[in-house]
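Worked example

This section walks through a single chain of length 255. The input is the sequence exactly as stored; nothing has been trimmed or padded.
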Amino acid sequence: MNIDSIIELENVSFSYNGFSVLEDVNLCIRAGEFICVVGPNGGGKTTLLKLVLGLLKPKAGAVRVFGQQAEQGRQHIGYVPQHAQVDPQFPVTALDVVLMGRLTGSQRSGFFNARDRQAARDSLGQLGLSDFSSRPFSALSGGQRQRVLIARALVGEPELLLLDEPTSSLDLHVENEFYELLSDINKRLTIVLVSHDLGFVTPFATSVVCVKRFVQIHPTSQLSGDLICDIYGTDMLMVRHDHRCAEKGHECGNS
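Given that input, the structure is written out below as tokens.
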């Protein structure tokens, strides 16, 4: 194993009911990187994250996280799934949801001390939700709920943050601010982010992992129209919504 790597997949293959999803994957992610995982729907992106978390077992090959088997290494990981796993109608506050991130395998009673509560408040503050700690989770907007779930992932003080399409519930005008926040978090954590928002992510990401059954990793500087077309099977525009044109009539956006 590379001494600098925190995630390493070696000759990993995975299939669902005999259908190959990932094949012969070799991937090394080092501490401090900001990785954007891209690919078509059904290409294996979420499966890749679940293998890293130890929630799935590879059909072949080895997955190591922080030098351990994936299920042992996940205690160092904060995870934001693609779909919320908290019933929005369940009578809990934003602070209660974040406190769930302080639970460990040996602590399942739900009793939290003052340090836990302060950590939860601090985590909400990082996401701009200090004034929402006592608000019912069901009363929050979709974007606010997503930020609460990100705060829950951070409150356990992980060394690695995995996010599966975290901006799906965020408004466009706050999306760039969200990625700037992740860039700041990246100063202390390694980040692996699944996203389709290439135009937003690439200014902050160090590398892009392309998942389409097989896996390739590229520096963001290598992203070209041909490569994007190969990943998604069609032409795709990368647009930054905060972009403004200097001259009226000039075509906006980056392709």
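What to look for: Helices lie at 45-53, 70-73, 94-99, 114-126, 142-155, 172-185, 198-201, 225-232.
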